[in-house]
Amino acid sequence: MSRNRVRSWDEVSYTIQAGGRHVPIHPQAPKMKFIEQNLREFVRGSEDLYRRLSIRECVRIQTFPDTFKFYYKSVDAGYKMIGNAVPVKMGEILANKILKDLKGFKVKNDVKIQKVITKVNGVVVRERMVEIINNIPVNA
Prior knowledge:
By secondary structure, the chain is α+β, with helices and mostly antiparallel strands. The chain folds into 2 domains: 1-103, DNA Methylase, subunit A, domain 2 (DNA Methylase, Chain A, domain 2), CATH 3.90.120.10; 107-140, no CATH class. Helix content is 30%, strand content 8%. The protein has 4 helices and 4 strands, in the order ββαααββα. The protein has a two-stranded antiparallel ribbon with strand order 1-2. The chain has a two-stranded antiparallel sheet with strand order 3-4. The termini are far apart.
């Protein structure tokens, strides 16, 4: 079963999925014994070492800083939140690539955005969007 997979400490983690049942098993456990396709069993005598990664361990795999706080009402909701999140480092790499590509485009100064108002936590961000667009350098 895909949910009962173990990676060792020096291997890259399996994908953190949006659900507690599919969270990888902690690397302290030995790899499960292969019986047949889609059938594995715990190594006898080591059953106490098998446990799923905690939500905080999944947060670390997703490269969130330890100081980042998540608010959820149940363990399942916490795993779902982390599994649906874009890993911080991946988001940073994508954002830097998008910024680099945008800087390569010629844009008109004084971009006018009409009838577009986006609210985030009750704050209108339209002005900030225009400011960001207008500060992209124009190639000569």
